[in-house]
Task: structure prediction
Amino acid sequence: MKYTLLIFISFFLQHNSFANECSPANDASRVTVAGGSITEIMYMIDAEDSIIAVDLTSNFPERARSHPQIGYVRALSAEGILSLDPTIIIGEDDMGPPAVLEQINRTGVEVAIISEKHNIEGIKSKIECVAEILNKKVEARELFDARLNPAIERLNIASERVSENQTKAIFILGLQSGSPLIGGMGTSANGLIEMIGAKNVLSSFEGWKPVSTESILMAEPDLILISNRGLSAFGDVESLRQHPALALTPAAKNNNIIAMDGMAMLGFGPRTIFSALNIANDILDINDK
Result:
C-alpha cells in the first residue's frame, strides 16, 4: 500500500512540475508532438511548420508521417527526443513514462500535457489549449467557424434522432484470445457511442475487455463499430459477421457494421467530430430502410 502511494505521489509531483498545460509556450519554434490528435490539430490550425518530430500515432494527415518518429506516446525515450533539440514537447494525457518527461523537463525543454475528455466539449477544449500554447487562437477560431461548429450543429441534431431510436451499439477494438475486445465505460469508444446518440450495451465494465459470446448475445447490439485495423484481425466484414460471438447478433444478421480509421474515430481530435457525424447519419439511413 505504501509503495503504491509513493508511486502516485511521485507521478502527481512530476506532472505538476510541468508548465501550465494551456499557457503560451516560451518558445514554440521546435515542437515535438506525442499524440495523433495533437498533430492533427496543429495541421488544422496552420502550426505544422513548427513540428520537428511526432509519435507513432501521428499518421494524419499523410504528410505528418514524413517527420522523424519518437516512438509510442506511452513509451518515450528522453535521449531520442532531446537529440532533436526541441523547445517544447506537447503530448496527450497518456504521454509518458513520467520519469522520462521529468528528465526532459529538467533540461529546460517545456513539457505540456493536454487533458482529454471523451465528448464534444473535450475536443473543443483540446483544440483551444493547443492553440493557446502555440499562439494560434485566431486560426483556431477560423477552424471552428468554418468547419467544426457547423458539423457539431449537424451532429447534435443527428444524435438526438439516433437517441430517439434507442440504437444499441458496441465498439470492437480487435480480438484477444479469440474473443472480441470491446470498449466499456471510461473508454474513447464509449465516448464516441455517446456522441452519436447510441447506447453502449456493453458498458457494465471499465476499460477494454474481451467479452464472452453469451454476454454479447444477451446485449443484442443493433450496430457494431470497429476500426479498420481491428477489422483486419477478423479478416474482413464477412468473417466478422460469421464469428461465433457475433453471428447471432442483430448487427451481424443485418450487416449493420461500420469500420473506419481508428484514430479518426477514437483520437478525439477534430476528425472525431466528422466521424461521429458520418456514423450518426449512417445509423439514420439504416433506420429509414
Observations:
- DSSP finds 13 helices and ten strands in the chain.
- Residues 137-164 form the longest helix (28 residues).
